[in-house]
Amino acid sequence: MAGRIEDYAMIGDMRTAALVCNDGSLDWLCLPRFDSSACFAALLGKSEHGRWLIAPKGKAKVRRRYSPGTLILETTFTTGTGRITLVDFMPVEEPHSSIIRLVIGNEGAVRLQTDLVIRFDYGISVPWVSRQDETTLTAVAGPSMLVLRTPVPLKGKDLRTQGQFTVRKGETVPFVMTYVPSHLPVPLPIDVEVAMAATKKFWTQWTNRANFDGKWREPIQRSLLTLKGLSYRPTGGIVAAVTTSLPEQIGGPRNWDYRYCWLRDAAFTLLAFLNAGYTEEAADWQHWLMRSIAGSPDQIQTMYGVAGERRLDEWEIDWLPGYENSAPVRVGNAAALQLQLDIYGELADTVERGTEGGLPRVPRRAEIRKVFLSHLESIWRDADEGIWEIRGAPQHFTHSKVMAWVAFDRASRSERLDRKERAHWQKVASQIHAHVCLHGIDPERNCFVQSYGSACMDASLLLLPMVGFLPAKDVRIKNTVREIEKHLMLKGLVLRYQTGTGVDGLPPGEGAFLACSFWLVCNYVLLGRLAEARTLLNKLIGLCNDVGLLAEEYDPHSKRMLGNFPQAFSHVALVNAALAVMHATAPKTKRRPVNRRTRPPAAKAR
């Protein structure tokens, strides 16, 4: 049985990533890319669906950490006979992805076991395992091959590869597993000491480029490292999470594939990288974005593959029971083809933020903007599936309309437009602003609501002052925050929306959405409620697991993480919220300009 979601830690090489449980079992790994099929899928099933265990025999106390400033995981096991540290990492500079696992003796002598179950194609394809020499095994199935090198004697039993060994103080026992296409020759061995030093150097040098400091430096740094680990180095795309189908409700059907790149993440991610001083990463992300959306504006998608792929066909894996029997397990994501109007605003905001942050201007920027805005002008009145990608009937979501306003508002500010074009985009922006203020507000409570004609609240409304639709001091924004606090708070955390209304076409129930909770922190900052902002930020950071990672959601009743893991959206929101609080609470003489997402609206408040 898989561990709790929060029991896992991520290691990666910016091509793919693995999840290692605190019991020493590597339970999730897709090769050769984040969105490839898994060869270790025990996370969504049982050990026979693929896992790689290295752990002491019998009971042991466990303590974990990342080597400071890196994605090198150190898990220390203390037993009645001694203490060892299991070091897990993926070299960044090697031509093929490899997992290196080192067992280091610290005290006494510890008896350990290893259990290797390789199952390609999400746990169903049993490979042909062959011994190449005394220290080398290969496992082949179709186009894939894994090569394992270790001095530990291994033997096959019940379609598993197993071994037992003892590690004493001062000894180091290595395990190196490398992926290559099966038509290629077995790669040369990796020097583990050289690989370890190079990997540590890469990550620490990257970490040291950050230009921020303060109380929350450590969780911000860990979040940025996580985002870097979720990036696909060849293209600059950033996946939403390493996993698919970790449930938003245990035992329920809210299980989605997050191993893709969402357009709406662009502005938030860009802002996080720029504010922390990582302009190169921001530029890579912007280039990925513009390549991915290239083409006809009516074909724009909400998400793409790590190289910009558009076919993300959704299907279900019936041989995997799902995490704690949360079925179905899905591959692909049908939401890629939904109409989500907010992404046009996110695109416009992303490009402007990049320009403000000193990034080079996007090639063909004016042409792209004109074509996309002309298309948006013809569709912004349509109902859509919204930011939460509902599987129910399309709605006129208030947040979607606001983000359409953002697209035209940002365009109308461009100095490179002629007066006539600027006036036209400003006119459209004003029309949308008036439309939202007329139809998106509950007249009795004088607050914004989830969709036109609805009385329900939605946490996406917290973004309205953050994108400058109205200033935070506007009474309608204050009332909206108050109503969200009243109707969407679960033990101090924020729900996305009221799932019991059936608006999303799914059974009700899920955890609190962590990104939304960080948005509330930002709203508190804008409202001048700084003490509450600090309190909530500290509460949220306290929900990180022992190595500083966050999933998509959190259930405060069971005190467990929910949803895919680690979640980029949660970590981006953490970075931006923490930097906002740090900036707002720093002495005026020490404040550094922040590339804010908040600005006064161009349209007159109505």
Key features of this structure:
15-stranded antiparallel sheet; single chain; 3-stranded antiparallel sheet; 31% helix; Beta-galactosidase, Chain A, domain 5; Glycosyltransferase; disordered C terminus; 14 helices; 2 domains; 606 residues; alpha+beta
Give the helices and strands, then pairings.
Blueprint: E1 8-12, E2 17-21, E3 25-30, E4 38-40, E5 51-56, E6 61-66, E7 73-78, E8 82-89, E9 98-117, H1 120-123, E10 128-133, E11 136-141, E12 144-149, E13 155-157, E14 160-168, E15 172-181, H2 192-207, H3 217-229, E16 261-262, H4 265-275, H5 279-293, E17 303-304, E18 315-317, E19 329-331, H6 342-356, H7 365-379, H8 398-412, H9 419-439, E20 441-442, E21 447-448, H10 463-466, H11 475-487, E22 489-490, E23 493-494, E24 512-513, H12 514-526, H13 530-541, E25 553-555, E26 560-562, H14 568-585
Antiparallel strand pairs: 1-2, 2-3, 3-4, 3-5, 5-9, 6-7, 7-8, 8-9, 9-14, 9-15, 10-11, 11-12, 12-15, 13-14, 16-17, 18-19, 20-21, 22-23, 24-25, 25-26
